Amino acid sequence: RHIFPRLSVTDNLRTGLSSIKENIPEDIYEYFPVLKEMGERMGGDLSGGQQQQLAIGRALVTQPELLILDEPTEGIQPNIIQRIGEVLKDLCQQRGMTIIIVEQYLDFIREFCDTFAIMNRGQVVAQDDIDALTEELIIQYLHV
User: Fold this and answer.
1) Global pTM value
2) Residue 104's Cα: distance from chain center in Å?
3) Would you state the pLDDT for residue 23?
4) Pseudo-torsion of CA 13, 15, 21, 22, nearest 10°?
5) Looking at CB atoms within 10 Å, which of 11, 18, 95, 117 has the fewest?
6) Which helix (H) or strand (E) holds 66?
7) With contact defined as beta carbons under 8 Å apart, do 93 and 62 qualify?
8) How far apart, in whole angstroms, are the C-alpha atoms of residue 99 and residue 68?
9) Mean pLDDT value across the chain
10) How many angstroms separate the CA atoms of 103 and 71, rounded?
11) pLDDT under 70 in the chain at which residues?
12) How much is the pLDDT for 111?
């Protein structure tokens, strides 16, 4: 998750700001209230789900147009996965942000993503709207 384990949650978020005088945008705390509650806690003391929220929050501090996430659900409990998915969906719908997610948890992809692409050895072998992610494609390209 690449947070700074020996910095507080607040200081982790501040690392994304361009100036020490800037304030952390309030919407970060609206998306992830736990970050405000645990502001003084060390990043390394957080659970995996809290660390993931912190990592995403830190990226959002920069107000990106594009966010790329590599397996944001890995090792996280279901209620936190749901919250992260809702936040990502809201960022796309309300802010018009583009989010690329590399993910193996297909239920998450089906619930929160609009389109998909399957890659094999660096080549896109299938891509479409999420409704077209069929069991046949999954068996063909994703089963081991």
Assistant:
1) 0.90
2) 14
3) 92
4) -50
5) 18
6) strand 66-70
7) no
8) 6
9) 94
10) 5
11) none
12) 95
Locate 134 and state its tokens: 């069929």
Contact 80, 49 (CB under 8 A): yes
What tokens appear for 75 in the block?
A: 């090792």
Task: Please give the structure tokens belonging to residue 139.
Answer: 């068996």
Residues in the chain: 144
Residue with tokens 């996280």: 76
DSSP strand pairing (66-70 vs 98-102): parallel
**Residue 86: per-residue pLDDT:** 96
Instruction: Give, to the nearest 10 degrees, the angle between helix 78-95 and helix 48-61.
Output: 10
Question: Largest Cα–Cα distance of the chain, in whole Å?
Answer: 53
The H or E element spanning position 96 is: none
Structure tokens at 133: 């992610």
